[in-house]
């Protein structure tokens, strides 16, 4: 085996050499090697290899070598030997986000989440947080934020990382021209960056259009005309209008057509659920402001008769992650029961968070587990399909999935930067941590921290 974890120590020894315990040398297959290249991120240094008598797996570095590779901390991390005379420590994982706070809250409201990410990754990697403006391309370094054992943040200069987890917090931040150029620059340097940007709703539907996974997507139309909306209402009886770049259920309309009763529009305004009836279709269109030809930057989507509890529709948030084997897994599932009169199942709109087991056993009885497995299989097929057609690396996805009253599974939305509100449920506390651990296992894979293959 040439991939393991070890404890790194800084030593006061004056000799410019790399010291390893005998057990670590055997694990990394370094026996007989005289000189070794030590690498952290984009920095490396070559020095003589020395064995020390010490039980366990340990790596000792004189301060001159610590400074040469800009090692930000000692302690436990992963270590590999991809080539016979090479030691890679790390991986150095950069979590890219916006820095807009100061002191103990450098990432504003995201600070506690960044702390959770870094704490999870510190067991096997060297994680840090940075903003795009913290990169020094000339020197090949990043001035990043590291979490201290005391819980405080300290800034240190480190090499360009082995892999980047993109957690930019908003669409506005993502759409800056300079940010796109920065991301491209990382990739050109061979640094994998995953979760490239937020999805627009239509982008996802378009990606899947020629894939068999499109069977799981309800009928959808971008920038629908009045004629398309009327046709869909007559065909499906109810549809949803969703802003292409929206989130949290903001700006969504639920339109319903009932013969002899007219047209209904349900939406949320000023924190309240609103329902308006129109005798004629033209009145509905006037309210929506479609007089100039269509609903720009909106998607019209077929309504689905979802399973219900207490006459309230239920849908599911599937949190998907890649794992250390580069495979998609269902990291967590939250069931969301719509609030009375709400357009969506979002918690902020009166929705209730439940576990999928609670819901499906109540709806299907003993068959609930079977239905859940079918939904999981569908979610994995959808993740694989999106990845096949997407131009950039993905490591995490969120799906809004529904099950209709005929047991058909549907995907309504896919999110490249999924929120984590489902993890507030007490039953998903362990899944919360495991989902982040999957991310760092995937970082090991993406950064090529793997066992060396012998010829």
Automatic annotation (TrEMBL):
SUPFAM superfamilies: Glutathione synthetase ATP-binding domain-like. It comes from the Bacteria. It holds the Pfam family ATPgrasp_YheCD. This is YheC/YheD family protein. It comes from Gordoniibacillus kamchatkensis. The lineage of its organism: Bacteria, Bacillati, Bacillota, Bacilli, Bacillales.
């Amino acid at each position: 085996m040439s991939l393991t974890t070890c404890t790194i120590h800084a030593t006061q020894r004056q000799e410019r050499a790399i010291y390893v315990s005998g057990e670590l040398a055997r694990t990394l297959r370094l026996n007989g090697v005289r000189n070794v290249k030590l690498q952290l991120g984009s920095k490396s240094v070559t020095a003589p290899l020395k064995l020390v008598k010490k039980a366990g797996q340990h790596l000792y570095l004189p301060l001159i070598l610590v400074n040469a590779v800009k090692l930000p901390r000692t302690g436990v991390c992963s270590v590999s030997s991809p080539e016979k005379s090479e030691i890679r420590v790390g991986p150095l994982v950069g979590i890219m986000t916006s820095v807009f706070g100061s002191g103990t809250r450098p990432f504003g409201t995201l600070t506690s989440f960044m702390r959770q990410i870094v704490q999870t990754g510190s067991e096997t990697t060297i994680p840090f947080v940075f903003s795009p403006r913290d990169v020094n391309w000339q020197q090949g370094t990043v001035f990043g934020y590291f979490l201290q054992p005391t819980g405080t943040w300290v800034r240190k200069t480190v090499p360009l990382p082995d892999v980047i987890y993109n957690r930019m917090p908003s669409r506005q931040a993502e759409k800056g021209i300079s940010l796109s150029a920065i991301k491209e620059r990382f990739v050109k340097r061979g640094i994998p960056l995953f979760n490239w940007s937020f999805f627009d709703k239509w982008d996802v539907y378009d990606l899947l259009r020629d894939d068999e996974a499109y069977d799981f997507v309800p009928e959808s139309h971008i920038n629908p005309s009045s004629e398309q909306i009327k046709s869909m209402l007559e065909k499906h009886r109810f549809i949803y209008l969703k802003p292409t770049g929206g989130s949290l259920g903001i700006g969504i309309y639920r339109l319903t057509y009932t013969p002899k009763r007219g047209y209904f529009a349900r939406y949320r305004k000023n924190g309240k659920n609103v329902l308006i009836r129109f005798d004629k279709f033209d009145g509905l269109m006037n309210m929506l402001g479609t007089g100039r030809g269509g609903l720009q930057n909106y998607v019209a989507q077929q309504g689905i008769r979802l399973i219900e509890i207490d006459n309230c529709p239920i849908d599911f948030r599937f949190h998907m992650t890649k794992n250390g084997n580069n495979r998609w897994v269902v990291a967590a599932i939250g069931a969301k029961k719509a609030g009375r009169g709400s357009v969506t199942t979002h918690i902020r709109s009166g929705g209730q968070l439940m576990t999928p087991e609670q819901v499906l056993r109540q709806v299907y009885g003993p068959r609930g587990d079977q239905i859940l497995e079918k939904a999981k299989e569908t979610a994995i097929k959808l993740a694989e399909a999106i990845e096949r057609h997407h131009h950039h690396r993905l490591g995490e996805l969120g799906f809004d999935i529904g099950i209709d009253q005929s047991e058909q599974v549907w995907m309504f939305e896919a999110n490249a930067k999924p929120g984590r509100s489902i993890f507030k449920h007490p039953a998903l506390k362990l899944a919360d941590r495991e989902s982040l651990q999957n991310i760092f296992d995937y970082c090991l894979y993406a950064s090529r921290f793997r066992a060396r293959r012998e010829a």
